[in-house]
Amino acid sequence: MKYLRILVVLFLVTTLVYGCSVPITDSGNTDVVTLPEAESKQEPIAEPEPEKEVVGVEEETEEDSKAPSPIESPKNTEPSPEPEPELKPEPEPTEEPKPSPNPEPPKTLDLNIEFTLGSGITPEVQTTVFEVLTDAATFVDKETGYHIKNFEVFLFKDRNELVDAWMRFHNLSMNHRDEVLDSWFKYTARAGNGFIFFLIPDYLLDDIKSKPTSFIDVLTHEYVHVIQYSYAGTDNSPKWLNEGISSYISAMYLINLPMHHPDMDWWLRDAKRASEPLTSPLKSMESRAGIENAGQSFRVYLFSALAAHQLAENSGMSALLDYYKNLENSVNWRVAFRNTFDVTADEFYIEFENLRIQE
Q1: Contact in structure between 250 and 220 (CB atoms under 8 Å)
Q2: Model's pTM, two decimal places?
Q3: What does the pLDDT look like over 147-168, one tens digit per residue?
């Protein structure tokens, strides 16, 4: 019995600890005693949840892990102060580039001029002539798109010396010398395909370095003739048109010079006033004889320049030299005139005379 009691006590203790029920058998009892389950003091161990993969989030660094999670609520319920914005240094104000008061001059043409100098023509004169022609050629190229780089220039102060050089250049016999000499009493300069002859009077030579207006005017005028002749010449074209275009472009160049004070309005008034005494219509000046018989040459040239100005107003300055390029491939000058200026020569004569009457 002593051992039986010990077994019963162990049984009860075991039941209390593990909460299980077992049958108790006794050699004298068949009853089964069921003991109630005792609450376990041990808390169930929760299984760890599987880690969820986070997509599109950068990995945290050690410093990032110290910061509170943006999802979990912080233990301190008080709102944390917003971080002060980082102060960045303001960029230094940059000044906008100011437009240049003087536009950049066009690129100077590199002329290749072969000079022939007569007696009394110094290298300083040659240099001045070269500078004037270079500036004039640059202007003409800028305004019209035409230029000639390679040509010859003959400079003389003695008329007889010039005539001899002229005859040699054109392979003329001595039988024509008197005729050539007489023609050079009418002109101070003449030009053709690839050349300019210039008889420089003494009064210009004395002040050549100052580049007088008349000196610049003559050289520019003759340079335009070189361009005209380089295409189709001028023999098949009206003389008023050849001289008018050369005179007009030369006048526009003079107006463009800083040292030349008269403006376009002044030139127009002067040209109109100078041509008022002329009574011959423009059409009568198609030939050399017609120009020479119309009146004083400077008046005729200004009158013709007014006609060229009207053509430039209608078609642009470049059209004045486009005409010679078209003349090269045209049956005659009238066809080239119509194709260039979009008006027939006769229609233009009427238009120009009407403007002349109105003014």
Answers
A1: yes
A2: 0.70
A3: 999 999 999 999 999 999 999 9
